[in-house]
Amino acid sequence: MRTRGPPTRAGSKFITPAGEARLRAELDALWRHERPQVTAAVAAAAAQGDRSENAEYIYGKRRLREIDRRVRFLRLRLDGMTVVDRAPADRNRVYFGARIRLEDEQGGQRTHRIVGPDEFDMGADYISMDAPLGRALLGRRLGEQIALELARGTEHYTIVAIDYDAVPAR
């Protein structure tokens, strides 16, 4: 679970059911478990007297701010999300949730699943729909070629398979 650092940048508002469950679990863990524990620790540290040199108090207050910031972000993010739990009618096009197999010019193949920006870290082959490759793939058809502009040059891929495994049809 990601709980440290600034909230992630808000991107596209689509998410898979598994991604939504993960964000809701993180929100629940922060709000119902971690925040009450940190609040109790801050209260205990405050009872010890001088707060200006009390490391536990200072750290606890900082952690509470981090938790509150993340909770606010998760609540707002989940509020505006669209959970995509159905495959599209046209399964020969790349849409959100698709697992795509690409073939490069040398015949090498790689597989990716297009997900929302809040869940690309759930699997090694997951890519965000907001990433350059994700944007290049969306809406493309089976057998279509794409050109991806990278710092090291242009790479060409052919879409050789599109699968919406474990996603019921609309």
Classified in CATH, the superfamily of the largest domain is Transcription elongation factor, GreA/GreB, N-terminal domain
Total individual domains: 2
- Count of separate DSSP helical elements: 3
Distance N to C terminus:
32 Å
Stretches with pLDDT under 50, minimum 5 residues? 1-7
CATH architecture of the largest domain: Orthogonal Bundle
- Would you report the number of β strands? 7
* Outline: elongated
**Sheet with most strands:** 5 strands, mixed
Question: Whole-number average pLDDT?
Answer: 88
Please state how the strands of the largest beta sheet are arranged side by side: 5-4-3-7-6
CATH topology tier name of the largest domain: Helix Hairpins
Radius of gyration from the alpha-carbon trace, in angstroms = 21 Å
Order of helices and strands: EHHEEEEHEE
What's the level 1 CATH class of the largest domain? Mainly Alpha
User: Which percent range fits the helix content?
Assistant: 25-40%
Strand content: 15-25%
Decide which structural class fits the backbone: alpha/beta
Topology:
Blueprint: E1 14-15, H1 17-46, H2 55-79, E2 82-83, E3 99-104, E4 109-115, E5 126-128, H3 132-137, E6 145-150, E7 153-163
Parallel strand pairs: 1-2, 4-5
Antiparallel strand pairs: 3-4, 3-7, 6-7
